UniProtKB/TrEMBL annotation:
Residues 334-386 form the HAMP domain. Gene3D superfamilies: 6.10.340.10, Histidine kinase-like ATPase, C-terminal domain (3.30.565.10), PAS domain (3.30.450.20). GO terms for molecular function: ATP binding; phosphorelay sensor kinase activity. It is a multi-pass membrane protein. It comes from the Bacteria. SUPFAM superfamilies: ATPase domain of HSP90 chaperone/DNA topoisomerase II/histidine kinase, HAMP domain-like. The keyword Nucleotide-binding applies. Pfam families: HATPase_c, His_kinase. This is Sensor histidine kinase. It comes from Paenibacillus lentus. Keywords: ATP-binding, Cell membrane, Kinase, Membrane, Nucleotide-binding, Phosphoprotein, Transferase, Transmembrane, Transmembrane helix, Two-component regulatory system. InterPro entries: Bact_2-comp_sensor_kinase, HAMP_dom, HATPase_C_sf, HATPase_dom, Sig_transdc_His_kin_internal. The chain crosses the membrane at residues 317-336.
Length: 621
């Protein structure tokens, strides 16, 4: 029963199609989502670190430029640099007036620096020559002799600018202070700059600027999620200039996951210890003032949380699909059988010849579309059968009319010969020639058993036609010119394709009479490079606009309501396409000085003309 029942087969197939893909999709979705989420997280966190590193480098660059502003007055009297350069030991200092000027220079320059950055907490400038400390704190300038001050040395041991990691603020050994301002209450990091006696590398003094962590916190907030991720800004020794964990700020981070590869400026790696399990991202910071690393720790729980949530959603959806699939399997199996039975019943009616039978369209789904297509197909077949039957009747009628038109053709031809003989008796040679031409045309057109001729035969028929037209217009008003390539004369063409083109000249080109001198008709033919036959008929008739030429071409190539419009040329094109296919064409081109060229393009290189009456084929090439 299972093998013969479509219903049970559909139920089993649909259940299998739901259960298997659902299970596979849940499994694959989890691993793929896990991998894609990891990849996306790596890409996003790398971008975050790159952006943060760029912001930090810009921040440190601003600090560096601020410190270098001391050198801006290197050649200006009473500038800060000049004052440091001219400083003398304490026992050699001059009058108080100069001391006051010197004090004003220091205080104003330090105040300008203090006001240029809102994160500056304190600025300390120590001058070696007079062992003098100059400090600007909270907008208050203080100066005192400070022989106990010893400047910090860079971790590299060189006299160069560097940043001291975050530490509690202090007074740089100065004894005087500001009331109600306790030292060590603010966490700051310090930028230390030796002031050189240019162009030598001798240090004349030391500039130290303490910065609050406000700007670093703002930059760091854009790089991590508070509570689930961590960010560190470490110097090359592992000291934490900043950390998302306040307890680790200013401390040296222990060795382990914080030890990034020294030869790489960015990357990531997995790390696991008792406090952390996840991925560590790092980005090197290289600036004249600070060299270190920006680190970000992303735990696996944070990475894969979205993947697990998506898996739970996918599982729930899969179970829902399973239930819906079971219900749909039964419903679809029943819905499938009824339309199939109706189609089978319909095909049986068509098989016994009932072509008017129709299948009832019950739905608008695929079965409804199939039913409609079958109905349309049956109707089309029925119409084609009727059309073929009507065409056969029309063909028989045409054959009967053709036979009726050929009644006693010899009598008409013999009558013309008798008239021609009579014209010879009276020495009317021109009449004789015209009657012979007319007789040849009658014999050519009445030979209905021949559908194809050579181009030479077609040209001879046109010559007879033009001979009669010469009698109509006179030799002085009609000039005929043939430019026929010799190799084209043996080409096989459908019969009666040239006369309509030539007849069109006299019918349309000169319907207003002969205005611009004699009528000139030129007939030319040649073979193109592909061996296709080109035939053109030109005249010097009335002037046509490009729009008129296009309208005439459209009337020939497209069926119009006026079937009699350009019927001769339309029939020529229709017969050419019947023999040679849609590649055959008829084109028109107007002349600037008046007249028209009608050209036929016949693709004879790859076709054969079949003569139905002779039941033989003529090679077109």
């Amino acid at each position: 029963m299972f093998r013969k029942s479509i219903r049970f087969k559909l139920i089993a197939l649909l259940l299998f199609a739901v259960i298997l893909p659902t299970g596979v999709s849940i499994t694959v979705s989890y691993f793929y989502t896990k991998a894609s989420v990891t990849e996306k997280s790596i890409r996003e966190n790398t971008n975050y670190l790159n952006l943060g590193a760029s912001n930090l480098q810009s921040y440190f660059k601003g600090i560096h430029e601020l410190a270098l502003s001391i050198y801006s007055g290197i050649n200006i009297p009473n500038s800060l640099y000049t004052s440091i350069l001219s400083a003398k030991p304490q026992h050699l200092q001059e009058a108080d007036s100069k001391e006051d000027i010197n004090r004003n220079v220091f205080s104003s320059q330090l105040l300008n620096m203090f006001q240029s950055n809102k994160d500056i907490y304190q600025i300390h400038l120590f001058v070696n020559a007079n062992q003098q400390s100059n400090t600007l704190l909270k907008g208050f300038f203080r100066r005192e002799y400070n022989d106990s001050y010893r400047p910090l040395v860079s971790p590299s041991g060189k006299v160069e600018p560097f940043i001291e990691i975050t530490h509690p603020d202090h007074r740089y050994g100065m004894k005087s202070g500001i009331p109600n301002l306790k030292s060590g209450s603010i966490e700051v990091f310090s930028a230390h700059y030796p002031i050189y006696r240019t162009p030598s590398d001798e240090a004349m003094g030391y500039l130290s600027i303490d910065f609050r962590l406000t700007e670093l916190e703002e930059i760091a907030k854009a790089m991590y999620h508070l509570g689930s991720e961590q960010v560190f800004l470490l110097n090359e020794e592992g000291g934490a200039l900043y950390s998302s964990d306040p307890e680790l700020i200013g401390k040296t981070i222990k060795a382990g996951w914080s030890q990034v590869p020294s030869k790489e400026d960015h990357g990531h790696f997995s790390w696991k210890d008792e406090n952390f399990e996840g991925i560590v991202f790092y980005r090197a910071i290289q600036s004249p003032l600070f060299k270190g690393y920006l680190l970000k720790l992303v735990p696996y729980d944070n990475l894969y949380g979205d993947a697990r949530a998506i898996t739970h959603i996918t599982t729930g959806i899969g179970m829902l699909f399973l239930i819906v699939g079971m219900i749909a399997a039964v419903f679809i199996s029943i819905r499938f059988t009824n339309p199939i039975k109706r189609i089978i019943s319909f095909t049986q009616k068509v098989q016994i010849g009932d072509m008017d039978a129709q299948v009832e369209i019950a739905t608008e789904d695929e079965f409804g579309i199939l039913t409609r297509k079958i109905n349309n197909m049956t109707q089309t077949i029925n119409n084609l059968i009727l059309k073929e039957y009507k065409l056969e009747i029309a063909n028989k009628s045409n054959q009967l009319k053709a036979l009726q038109a050929q009644i006693n053709p010899h009598f008409l031809y013999n009558a013309l010969q008798s008239i021609a003989t009579l014209s010879l008796r009276y020495k009317a040679l021109e009449v004789y020639e015209r009657i012979c031409a007319l007789g040849s045309m009658m014999r050519y057109t009445m030979a209905t058993g021949v559908n194809t001729v050579t181009l030479q035969e077609e040209l001879e028929h046109v010559e007879h036609y033009l001979m009669l037209q010469e009698e109509r217009f006179g030799n002085e008003y009609l000039e005929i010119h043939f430019d026929i390539a010799e190799e084209t004369k043996i080409q096989a063409v459908p019969k009666m394709i040239l006369q309509p083109l030539v007849e069109n000249v006299f019918k349309h080109a000169f319907d207003d009479g002969i205005v611009n001198g004699p009528i000139r008709v030129r007939i030319a033919s040649h073979l193109d490079e592909a061996g296709n036959l080109m035939i053109a008929v030109s005249d010097n008739g009335k002037q046509l606009t490009p729009e008129q030429v296009r309208e005439m071409e459209l009337a020939i190539n497209v069926e119009t309501k006026n079937e009699m419009e350009q019927i001769g040329l339309r029939n020529v094109l229709a017969r050419l396409r019947l023999y040679f296919g849609k590649e055959a064409s008829l084109t028109m081109r107007g002349h600037d000085n008046g007249g028209l060229t009608v050209a036929l393009w016949i693709p004879t290189g790859n076709c054969r003309i079949i003569e139905e009456d002779k039941s033989e084929s003529t090679d077109c090439g």
